[in-house]
Backbone:
């Protein structure tokens, strides 16, 4: 879109995101001798427990190779040997199809995309600018708010340097705010992942669904500290690493015949169950029998991290635990990334596009971002040509009003409530849920919501308070949509609904 003026607003450094930490790679069919679209479609549907939208799965997987070639044209480097792409395998995939750049694929993709953006004079990047809320007719004086016809006119944005909130109006707005891992105590997500986009679309009355489906990654590096845990990529198990109890005993054969290569939800529940039985803090990932040279070549970042933590993966097991990783639900979008709000698009992990269903197949999310990003851009070009925008309303959007608000003098209230929320979600609404835990969570969530609303109503906004408010909204949606479930699907597991036992032979 060389003629359109584009502003990218991001709340941290321009490269800080979940994308930066993606290790395993991008799932895409490239080796048509052994692999084909149907196999990738079947694997995606199986992981999603059939809750995926087939037409979306087909579209994304078939568009994948074109979007992958585009990335290469923009300068992204993928690992090759003798002129052929090196293809990795991850849990749930029946073929080797993961293209990667060592174990820092996301960072490499981001590097190439940021360099491409820098060469585009029509794109302005505003780092350390925090989006507080979307602007809809609700903000325009004299407009009647019609739930059936909501229009988006841009967003209110806090400039973190001068603490001023400004309005940015736009014909088209696109939300790509990533996941919400910090609604739990332990997550593989960086600190930016606070579900902001999902929360502000929900507050603007946009449709948000499938929030009950949160994927826990089975193998995050165990740490005594809460917060962001380092991920030990699934590709390590794909290359032959085995899961063991602390005493060296095997256990995955009890849960699935694919053992270590079963889909994430199964492996995460298996570890969660074994930890509950043994009372241990972690299980071990045994890489001792793997080809050491290949390991260092394929996973240099993981290898270095282990050494930094005093673990030699070739002589001892890597201690791992499940951690909150990827949100399948989010803002409802169609195949072009259009949300239920007019002129508002959403792309990536903040969406429920229909691709992942009840559980995401490993390495399908970078693919989703690429395909939907492209489709949203194409649709935007079309809409800009039609030019059916409400220019009077866009002009009438008022500035942000802080009258009567005061500076918050006790930030401890925000950090305390955030910890309370994360504890509650981790104890009551995590890998294995139950009716009574969910009911208790609903009650506790309400108490936290009321305390946060009180703070919000009199305080001058800070990103910390706004993120807390967003996490509270996200927790509300997860609990509410979990309580509506009548059967277990994919990543969602309520032990009171279980028709199948957790282990194969029970
Ligand atoms: C450790 C790890 C490993 C992973 N490995 C893989 C993998 O190998 N393959 C794969 O396919 N997927 C992987 N994933 C998942 C994948 O990386 C993410 O789902 C994907 O990158 C999300 O991209 P996104 O563009 O939707 O969001 P992000 O990349 O998270 O970007 C969101 C952006 O929005 C900004 N933002 C958020 N809120 C606001 C706000 N209020 N105001 C302004 N800006 C805001 C953030 O600062 C950030 O820049 C991994 C995830 C993690 C955490």
Residues:
């Amino acid at each position: 879109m060389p003629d359109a003026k584009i502003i990218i607003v991001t709340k941290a450094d321009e490269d800080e995101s979940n994308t930066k930490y993606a290790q395993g790679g991008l799932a895409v069919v490239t080796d048509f001798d052994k692999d084909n679209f149907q196999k990738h479609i079947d694997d995606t549907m199986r992981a999603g427990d059939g809750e995926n939208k087939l037409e979306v799965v087909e579209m994304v997987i078939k568009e994948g190779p074109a979007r992958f070639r585009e990335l290469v044209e923009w300068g992204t480097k993928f690992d090759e040997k003798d002129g052929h792409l090196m293809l990795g395998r991850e849990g749930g995939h029946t073929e080797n199809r993961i293209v990667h750049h060592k174990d820092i694929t996301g960072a490499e993709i981001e590097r190439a995309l940021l360099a491409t953006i820098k060469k585009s004079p029509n794109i302005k990047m505003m780092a350390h600018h925090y989006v507080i809320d979307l602007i809809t007719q609700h903000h325009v004086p004299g407009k009647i708010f019609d739930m059936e016809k909501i229009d988006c006119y841009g967003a209110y944005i806090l400039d973190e340097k001068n603490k001023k909130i400004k309005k940015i109006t736009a014909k088209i707005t696109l939300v790509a705010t990533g996941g919400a891992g910090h609604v739990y105590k332990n997550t593989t997500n960086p600190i930016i992942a606070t579900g902001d986009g999902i929360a502000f679309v929900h507050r603007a009355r946009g449709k948000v669904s499938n929030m009950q489906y949160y994927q826990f990654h089975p193998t995050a590096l165990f740490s005594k500290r809460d917060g962001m845990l380092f991920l030990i990529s699934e590709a390590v198990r794909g290359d032959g690493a085995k899961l063991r109890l602390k005493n060296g005993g095997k256990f995955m054969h009890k849960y699935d015949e694919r053992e270590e290569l079963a889909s994430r939800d199964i492996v995460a529940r298996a570890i969660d169950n074994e930890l509950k039985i043994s009372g241990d803090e972690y299980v071990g990932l045994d890489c001792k029998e793997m080809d050491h040279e290949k390991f260092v070549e394929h996973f240099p970042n993981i290898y270095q991290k282990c050494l930094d933590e005093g673990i030699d993966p070739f002589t001892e097991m890597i201690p791992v635990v499940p951690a909150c990783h990827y949100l399948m639900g989010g803002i409802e979008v169609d195949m072009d990334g259009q949300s239920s709000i007019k002129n508002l698009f959403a792309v990536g992990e903040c969406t429920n596009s229909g691709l992942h269903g009840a559980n995401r197949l490993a390495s399908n999310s970078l693919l989703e971002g690429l395909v939907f990003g492209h489709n949203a851009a194409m649709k935007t070009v079309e809409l800009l040509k039609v030019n059916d925008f409400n220019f009077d309303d866009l002009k009438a959007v008022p500035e942000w009003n802080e009258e009567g608000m005061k500076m918050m003098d006790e930030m401890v209230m925000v950090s305390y409530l955030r910890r309370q929320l994360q504890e509650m979600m981790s104890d009551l609404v995590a890998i294995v849920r139950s009716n009574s835990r969910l009911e208790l969570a609903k009650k506790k969530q309400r108490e936290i919501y009321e305390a946060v609303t009180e703070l919000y109503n009199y305080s001058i906004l800070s990103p910390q308070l706004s993120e807390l408010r967003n996490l509270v909204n996200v927790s509300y949606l997860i609990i509410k949509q979990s309580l509506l479930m009548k059967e277990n699907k994919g990543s969602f597991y309520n032990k009171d609904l279980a028709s199948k036992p957790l282990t194969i032979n029970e």
